[in-house]
Amino acid sequence: MEKTRCPQCDLEIDHGAKTCPFCFAELGGVKPAAPRAAGPAGAGGFPWVYFVAAGALIALAVLVPRTFLKRPGKAPASSPAPAPVQAPAPGPREQVRKSAAANGLKVLSPQDPGRKWSLSGSVFDAATLAPKAGFQLIFQDRNSQQAYGTKTDAKGRYRLLLPENMGGFDVSVPPESGGRVIEDSLPSLARLSRDRRDTLIQAESGPEASDKPNVMGAGGKNASRNYAFIPFSAAPAEPPSEE
After folding, report:
1. What pLDDT shows up at residue 191?
2. Ramachandran assignment for 198, one of left (phi > 0), alpha (psi -120 to 50 degrees), beta (any other)
3. Residues near 23 by Cβ (< 8 Å), separated by ≥ 6?
4. Burial class (CB in 10 A: 0-12, 13-18, 19+), 200
5. Among 107, 124, 105, CA closest to 179
6. Are 13 and 6 in contact (CB under 8 A)?
7. DSSP for 17-61?
8. Residues 24/30/35/41 CA torsion (nearest 10 deg)
């Protein structure tokens, strides 16, 4: 059958058709357009179906996720696992607290209940006058027998809190230290000659010198005390037994 083109949509239809089967244009009384030679796209009219197809392609491009349009590549490298958080190193007060607790001693903090006073000072070797670093002091309540402890720093200094009491505190050192402490009163041992210090050390290092220094907080006021460490003298050799 002879073909012709619709004058409205420019699509090929049967010659003599009264209605276009594509755009439904009425062709009665209208002379169909002569057939056109095939030519390059865009030479003739642009049918509406092309608009529909172009719109569908644009909709697909918008709706389809971009991940489907990307070319497959290498998977991103996994980030390294975060390093475990380390607990902060204990401070000097916490170290003193743990050391005292290991020896059955108590260390007060400002948050503890009750009225307290602060005692500070230093500890040194009576013979050499060198500071006693890392040295433990024991303060025992004369009434409750509760023992409180502290340790000196690298320069032989110490500080601790003590509760208010009536009888004060006896000051001593652990038995494994191999000696005792005396209060450094006036005149200070640091002002004495070595001969006078040696004489004092000899007198205070025997087994009969067992008195412990005592310290009290007057009315809860802070106080300062310095102590000198004196090692115990070697026990005298026993005379040979007579047989």
Report:
1. 92
2. alpha
3. 6, 8, 9, 11, 48
4. middle
5. 124
6. yes
7. -SB-TTT--B-TTSPPBPP----STTSS---HHHHHHHHHHHHHH
8. -50
Q: Check pLDDT > 50 for residue 133.
A: yes
Q: What is the pLDDT of residue 158?
A: 96
* Stretch 160-182: mean pLDDT: 91
Pairing of strands 116-125, 227-231: parallel
Dihedral over alpha carbons 236, 206, 136, 214 (to 10 degrees)? 160
Taking the C-alpha atoms of residue 135 and residue 152, their distance in angstroms, rounded to an integer, is: 5
The one-letter code for the residue type at 85 is: V
DSSP H/E element including 194: helix 194-204
The domains found in the chain, sorted by start residue, are 3-39+46-67 (no CATH), 92-231 (2.60.40.10)
pLDDT digits (tens, 9 = 90+) for 41-51: 444 455 666 67
Write out the DSSP string of 3-17.
Answer: EEE-TTT--EEETT-
Closest CA to 103 of 136, 134, 135, 133: 136
Cβ neighbours for 120, distance < 8 A, ≥ 6 positions apart = 157, 158, 159, 160, 222, 223, 224
Query: Which helix (H) or strand (E) segment is 203 a member of?
Result: helix 194-204
How many Cβ atoms are within 10 Å of 76's Cβ, its own excluded?
A: 6
The yes-or-no verdict on residue 88 having pLDDT over 60 is no
Q: What is the DSSP letter of 177?
A: G
